[in-house]
Every structure is written in C-alpha cells, then in structure tokens.
Amino acid sequence: MLTVDFKRLKLQPGSKVLDVGCGEGRHTCEAYSQPGIVAVGLDLNHRDVAQTRSMLCAMEDADMGGGGAWQVFSGDCTRLPFSDGFFDAVICSEVLEHIPNNKKAAAELVRVLKPNGVLAVSVPRYLPEVICWTLSEQYYHTEGGHIRIYTRKSLLKLIEQTGMRCRASHFAHSLHAPYWWLKCTVGLDNEKSRLVILYHRFLVWDIMKKPWLTRTLDRLLNPFIGKSCVYYFTRP
After folding, report:
1. Which one, 125, 126, 154, 189, has least CB within 10 Å?
2. Is residue 7 over pLDDT 90?
3. Per-residue pLDDT tens for 59-88?
4. By C-alpha distance, which of 81, 77, 79, 92 is closest to 9?
5. H or E element: which one contains 232?
6. With contact defined as beta carbons under 8 Å apart, do 22 and 43 qualify?
C-alpha cells in the first residue's frame, strides 16, 4: 500500500532514494523495483528492518528489482548516518507524528538531500486523526504511537523552516479512515469485532486486487476523508 506517488519523485536510473522510518519496507521495495534505483531503508525498529531486508532479498531472488541496488539500516531519523546531500529523493511516510524532536528530524531529512532533490513527507490528516483521538485515548497513549496531530499549516512550517518549499500535495487512503474509526470505537485490542474483521478483509482484498470500483471510490473520497496528507518539497 503506497502512500507516496513515485511519479512525483522524478527518479532517474542511478538515483539514490532514502526511505526514513521504512517500517516493513513498502516504499523501499517500490523504490528498488524502479529501473536502476539505489534504494535505502532506515528504521529504528530492528524487527521492521529485518522484515524489509527479507522482502528485498525475496524481490532480488525473484528478479523483481529494477536492476539497481538496496541496503537497509537500523537508525535514528534525528541522527541519520549519511553524508550531506547524498540522496536524490527522501521519503518520510507516517513517521513525524511519532517523533518527539520533529524539528531535528526535519533538519536531518533535508541535510541528506541533494540540491534540487525531492522530499516526500506524509502524515495523518487532521480531521480523521482528531476523530481517532476523540474516540479512543488508547489510540494516542499506546507506546510508540502518535504524539501530535499536524495541521497543514504546522507541517508546512516545520519543513519550510529548513529552506524547503512545498511544490505539490494530495490526500491518500480514504477507505482506511473508517477502519480506524471502527477500531477506536470498539477498542484497538478488540480482535473479535465482526465489523472490524470484515472491513479489514475488504481492505486486504482492495490492496491485493485493486479493482477499478474501489480505486475510483478512493480517489473520489480522498479530498474529504483521506487518511493521509502527502507533501512534496524541493529547495527553491
């Protein structure tokens, strides 16, 4: 399930892409599938790093890569282990809402980006996130969970104070917002809710099959209840 639109990253064969807070590797794997790309994933969670490495190895074995290269690291996004201006594109998807020192993290994302490179940042959208916080205290008290809600203004201020400028934005994953509202209503740990189980099956089916009907519905609903906001920045 991709949040970032790779067409907006303007990648070319040989481009180096960093996926910060890569999780289980969805964007890192997509980068590796692009022709001639060097894909680098980084996450603080060792289990996620291992899962991403396993996925990339499987892609390599199945010849599903784009002919480039990959590497995965365990690391802190506020202290990135890379030199200045190393990457052509940096992705930071659904990460900043978890980070206490988000100003330091933003500075690091920009530091490792080449001049004229593209920084793609996504965070949970304000209204769907407020609904989740209202429905469930557990949602934001969970260890490693969300510690802040971004408005468009606050996110742009955070990134643009590093010298970047927003060039484009869009919403994503409208069909996922009701799922989290259901989870927050019945309890995040409630594994027996029939509605949650059925909706989860629907989302998995949608991700795997990508039928035109749900893809069209997702696009139509994104401006209203898209779960994520995605922003694309470059240096002026």
Report:
1. 189
2. yes
3. 999 999 999 999 999 999 999 999 999 999
4. 92
5. strand 228-234
6. yes
Kindly write down the DSSP assignment for every residue of 87-139, as one continuous string.
EEEEEEES-GGG-S-HHHHHHHHHHTEEEEEEEEEEEE-HHHHHHHHHH-HHH
How does residue 143 score in pLDDT terms, banded at 50, 70 and 90? confident
Residues 6+ positions from 217 with CB-CB distance below 8 Å = 174, 175
Both structure tokens of 91:
């992705």
Handedness of CA 159, 164, 166, 168 (dihedral sign): negative
pTM of the shown model: 0.96
Query: Of how many residues is the chain composed?
Result: 236
Spatial CA neighbour of 1 closest among 233, 234, 232, 230: 230
pLDDT tens digits, 154-191: 999 999 999 999 999 999 999 999 999 999 999 999 98
- Amino acid at site 122: S
Q: Which helix (H) or strand (E) holds 141?
A: helix 137-141
Give me the domains of the chain, ranges plus CATH numbers. Answer: 6-234 (3.40.50.150)
Place of tokens 């965070």: 123
pLDDT for 142 beyond 90: no
